User: What shape does this take?
Amino acid sequence: MANIKSAKKRILVNETRAARNKAIRSKVKTSIKKVEASISAGDKAAAQANLVNAISEIEKAASKGVYHKNNASRKVSRISKAVSSMA
Assistant: This one.
């Protein structure tokens, strides 16, 4: 356990940030799963609606530094391609 005051503060700050990052990552994963579920169900309208929401969540996560911009871009590209390739 840390004895120095600044080290104790770092532990608290790191826990807070980790919790925030975990919540943001979870929102992104959930939104991507919704897109994939509507794709597998064959509902193009729902897939496109969920795609807009998912892209928004991914961009927010990237702007907050939770995801690297290239990682976010890759995720957006993959789900966009999946939705656009629906019959």
Q: What stands out?
A: Residues 5-41 form the longest helix (37 residues). The helical segments are 5-41, 44-63, 69-84. The chain is about 85% helix and 0% strand. The radius of gyration is 17 Å.
